[in-house]
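Researcher: I'm preparing a figure for a lab meeting and need a structural model of a single chain. I don't have an experimental structure, so a prediction will have to do for now. The sequence is pasted below. Please return the structure as tokens so I can convert it later.
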Amino acid sequence: MHVERWTSADIFAELAEEWSALLGRAAVDTLFLTPQWQEVWWRHFGADLQPALLLARDEEGTLQGIAPLYAQEEAGRRVLRFIGGVEVSDYLDLIVARGREDEVYRAFLECLLDDPSWDLLDLHCLPAASPTSEALYRSCAECFPEDFTREPEEAAPYIPLPESWEAYLASLDKKQRHEIRRKVRRAFSEAEVRWSRLQDSAGLEEAVETFIRLHRASHPEKEAFMTPRMAAFFRDMARVTWEAGWLNLYTLWLDGRPAASMWCFDYGGDLLLYNSGFDPAWRPELASGIVLLACCLQEAIARRKRRFDFLRGGESYKYRFGAVDSAVYHLVVRNPRRKR
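Model: Understood. Here is the structure written out token by token.
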């Protein structure tokens, strides 16, 4: 296995076709690892970073692995992290062809072991379902036996979707089933309710701006998160993911006024809830966010989605809707050649 180093951000465009093909052969194929997503992230957050990607090719020259890394100087140390960033990407990973994990991980680690220029390999958001956590753990145990740690980082709940809405409701405990039905019934009886998933690119800009406004309004922490720079990323990312056919943007109106918005992705047969917002000052008694989530879940089941992925975060409302636990992991490797 031959390992190449890439230090140019042109890789996203130059390698897009090969990258996408490899992702389709990988055990973990997630939107956050697509060249489209990674390029948008780099465009908005990569100005002060150094690309440090590794590519693994077999004897025939076929791409079998990508380590989508960047380097950053931090407190006198050179740290390697995943492109995509923990702030806006929920699942990150090495991209490795299924069945080639052990040899590719070992090739990457041996390449890193020969490089004295980095201090820390700091990998966040590794999905529990990824072979990286175990296979890379085994390779680290051989190459860096005293210089790595691995631990659960954050919950990543999801709902396995059944064949019907009634079957989904039946899977909930009695109290939560009653609460969902009651809140939906009350909203539709006490207000003029309209909700929809964006269908036409002509409405994309308005739907995105509505989302940003509702997101900022829903909580002080969300307002602090949605800086002008972050809003620019969301606008650009909306355009790219819409063109790719992944963006599902939902809006709910109460009495003609936007009350809630949900930013979802349709990818790989799953529906991913990426972010949301609501207007706490407009008809708060009608729980617009909960009602929109229920409507979205019902539609996802009707569209035969396999699961509804809440992504990272263990907020209680996710479990009230019947989510089961998964997790993401954090792996840290210290370069034994740079011990201080």
